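Bit of a strange request maybe. I'm writing a small parser for structure token strings and I need a real example to test against, not something I typed by hand. Could someone generate the tokens for this chain?
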Amino acid sequence: MTEQLPVSLVDLSTYLPGDPITADYYAGFAETDELAENVMFRAPRFRHHVAPEETAIDMVERAAAGLIERHGCDVITGADVLITHTQLPDMPFYGGGGGMAHRLGMKPNWVIDLHNGGCAAFVLGLKVARTLLSAGEGRTAVIAIAQNAAGTVFDQPTVRRKAQAAVPGDGAAVALVTLSDSSPILDIECRTYGEYAGDMTLAIDPPAKWWQARTGEASIGFTESKITKVLARGNRQVPEVSYAVCDRIGVQPKDIDLFVTNQPNRVFLRNWREALELPPERHVDTFEDCGNLFAAGIPVNFDRAVTDGRVKAGDTVLMAAFAHAGDFAGAAAVRWGGRGDSGNV
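Reply from user aminoacidic:
Good idea to test on real output. This should exercise your parser:
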């Protein structure tokens, strides 16, 4: 009986749409907002916006270009599993998985759209991919993430005046996961906190359901009380899942070679780094260039670190994030193998 190969995160490539949007863009629209001075909404210098007619499927196709260039189109078209997450699905009834599979030329046995993972969806995607491949459901999985709410929801005429609008940015990522020992996934921790699931709400004036015809535009329903709770949960959850993974792989958090997280704001980034006792140079941070990338934050930041030479073959990389108002959190550790071939696929 042959030994089962581990599951590896072999490579990933990313896409940032359009030219950078500066903080001045939002300053020109800003009105008096009681939350303007809150640490949650201190704007980055830049972020990117999807074009008006650019779809999540377009973004994923553009993000996949780097993988195809390095590994050939067959490694994508022949993948057995496609796992997707889109912040704002092009079509709410059936998600984006089928359209993304078609655009990438795939005929996978599994197409799974994840929504509950939120900003931690990349970690959840790694867990689903590892579970399926380890169970014999294929040899290759593709994870596709599209964050497209910044140039759509947050750039609506009445929403762009709010403090919250200046923080999000758009981007996409596609990752290749295979049965191989080239860049093994060492451990994954995912936790659901269902008691917080209703704490993220939409604010619409006059009140309406999100799907109803209306005159008011939808934004996130932030209040000082909600922000205080979210800050407390995020500060606790990301270190908790990070420490759980580190404990199981036998590494002290302070000895991690690279820490990659989502990036809601500067405060979370600082607090998470300090909780793990890591210096800034070992925590990837693109907030000033990209803003809050939601679920695309981890793969975009990791791709940036690889491209910039901040991670080398053999390094242990820890990825961690929490989602929404704290209803989900996850962490994953990978022993990075470097950008080489696509492994034993």
